[in-house]
Specification:
about 40% strand
Length: about 160
């Protein structure tokens, strides 16, 4: 009988500890989690890239200019419960965007047009590659503010 009670109390303690450990939500103390007010879709990236952590767009190393392009979309969730309509993506115009290298070097500032598109042309040298070779990558940062909320989207350019 003593063994059964001892076994049950040990099992109960283990269960209590397991519940305590798994029920705790640990917040990241270094990063504030704020939902981005817009979706920054990197044009030219493979399908599904808006959900990927870092979409990559391939450009020919022989090209004189590289065209960086993105679409800014706001998600209208008004009809989220109506399966015949769903969520709508609305282009967001007149958003100033700062495009920089991940090192912090500025590439330029552009404003989204009526279609929500931002475009910036640069040479490989301006991107930091004087003689690009297949496989070279450049890390880009797209930053802006919409409805008082700042956002940043990362992407990469790869020479092919």
């Amino acid at each position: 009988m003593k063994k059964t009670i001892s076994y049950l109390s040990t099992l109960g303690c283990a269960l209590a500890i397991a519940l305590a450990v798994t029920s705790c939500k640990v917040e990241d103390p270094f990063v504030d989690r704020v939902v981005a007010p817009v979706l920054v879709d990197i044009v030219g990236a493979p399908f599904g890239a808006p959900l990927a952590a870092e979409p990559t767009v391939a450009y020919s190393a022989a090209d004189a200019k590289v065209v960086l392009k993105a679409r800014l979309l706001e998600l209208d969730k008004t009809n989220i419960l109506d399966h015949t309509k769903g969520i709508d993506s609305i282009p967001v115009a007149n958003i100033p965007m700062k495009i920089t290298l991940r090192t912090g070097a500025p590439l330029g500032e552009v404003t989204s047009n009526a279609s929500g598109e931002v475009t910036l042309e640069k040479t490989w040298a301006e991107l930091g590659l004087t003689a690009p070779k297949a496989g070279n990558t450049v890390k880009i940062s797209w930053s802006g503010t919409h409805k008082g909320v700042a956002f940043t989207r990362f992407s990469q350019i790869q020479a092919k």
